[in-house]
Amino acid sequence: MREQLLRFGPQGSLIGTITQPDADAVPSAPLGLVLFNSGVVGRVGPHRINVKLARRIAEHGIPTIRFDLHGFGDSQHADNGADFNEQSVADLRQAMDCLQRQAGVQHFTLLGFCSGAIPSYLTAQTDPRVAAIVIYDAFAFTTVKSRLRYLWLRLRRHGFGLSAGSRLARVLLRTLRTGLRRGRSMLSSSTAQDSGNQVWDSDAPPSRHQIGRGLEQIVANGARVLLLHAGDDFSAANYPGQARAALHLQDLSGNLNERFLEPIDHAVTSLVAQRMFLDVVCEELMATADALRVQSHRTADERKTRPARQVSGSAATRV
Amino acid sequence: MRPWLAALTPLHIGRNGRQMFALYLEPTASARRGHAVLLCNPFGQESIRAQRLYRVLGDRLTAAGFHVLRFDYYGSGDSAGEDEAFDLDGATADTLLAADWLLQRSKAQQLSCIGLRLGATISLLASASLPQMPELLGLIDPVLDGPAYLAQLADANERALARTYDARWSVYPRLHAFNLPSPGSETLGFPLTTQFRDQMAQLSNTALKQTHASRLLVLTPQPQRFKADLLAQVPSLEAHTVIFDADSDIDWATDSAVNTAIVPMHWIKRLINNLTECTVDA
Lengths: 319, 282
Fold this sequence. Notes:
The complex is a heterodimer of chains A (about 325) and B (about 280). With about 325 residues, chain A is an alpha/beta fold. Chain A has helices at about 50-60, 85-105, 115-125, 145-160, 160-190, 210-220, 240-245, 270-319, and strands at about 1-10, 15-20, 30-35, 65, 110-115, 130-135, 225-230, 255-260. Chain A has an 8-stranded mixed β-sheet, sandwiched between helices. In chain A, helix 3 (about 115-125) links the parallel strand 5 and strand 6. Chain B has about 280 residues and is an alpha/beta fold. Chain B starts with a strand and ends in a 5-residue tail after the last helix. The interface of A and B includes residues 40, 48 and 271 of A.
């Protein structure tokens, strides 16, 4: 494994670190990984998780760039007036360009850790080089089941007495009201919302319907999606399959997956939580690399067979 | 590039396999002073939380004409080495190497160091062996009692996990077993190795006794207590020390409000004013 620090992007205003596998370690996978800020945390990531991930995945032949978006970490501010989402997407594209030049990879996985989810999602919609996105602890939407599970947790904590009963009544009433409101909203706007990110606006976040269709569109374009949820905020996510149910995700290709990482927290704090997170992300990266290899072999085979068909076809014509 | 910045150079420094990330900020020729400032990071989660403060501090110092080097110790931040490779002696040696590099690169005649929490302690420990006596050691909320610091870190870890899991922490004991398999051996996502704990256990105002600087500037939420410690341990230092109330008691060892960038500008102004006062070409 070897690491290189560099400035890239407009006027060298972005700062990043490229981690490349040793030349003699393992054959290079046709995939690169892009890591960036989570909230205001610098490119090393919460608890240095990006550094650990980059070095570990390099052992499997996958190069990585970890970098600071404009205005974050060590990178300079951008002066072009773009909003956060526009600028982040532009920065991610610059990072892919940079890794492409340095490591020769043409496909990328973007890790959207928490607030990094939105830039990853938007970039995957517009850049065909994105082979996969891993969305960590974002896009969490409740379901009736998740609300009931959360309620059960609260009851277990507070006991089953009179006050717990009144708490239960209040929560059920609130759930009912929310359901009615959501139903009315869906009825009134069902014709307007169906294009994923294209109506994304920082001031008006998209609905779960839009996000769901946007993720399906990413998969339809040939990329993989992995949604990961931590288990610390039980009010947001609390059972495997919740994202699929909440977003009404339908994917028959198997390229849209989700994992509920029940014992780990949002910031991946404990060392054992970090190991679990790294295991899951590395597994997904290897799966993406394998899929790209298969695709690449298939394309090569098709190229080999295509000229043969043309020859026989032309011969038949001549006959 | 900002107008006050002649060059912003990310680079690796270090020797004997201890490759460290460093960022050298060079002021423009018109503003340039012959004074270089080394910024010493704190440890673990405190370092993650302080990143923005160091970024802004480095930028402001450069704008004021100082050469600045920010760097990550081996086994921390963007530098080489596993988390477990970080220890107090190693970080002190890394600081000496970084100071040497900064003086050679900048050709500055004067050197100062600034550190927050354990970074302040490391700059104190390194001060006697620096290539030249530092003009000023800027100490922000320094860690002087190693055992107390270890206890604070252990407590912060427990509190952080209990807070983040909320109701589940008390309902599901298996979460304890999973996340705290060996209490005391890690804190807020960073390992506390036996070596590091042993080094910290021996740190009891010893850092102050090793101080070697023309001037100390201390920003602390407990100025009276620091003054008492100073008088008790190294009374000779008092004449060279200015102590200010930090005027804010920030919990650096926490992962709550992880998205909060903490940059007390009054600290930065005070540090720059004091550095300017002791700069020969000012």
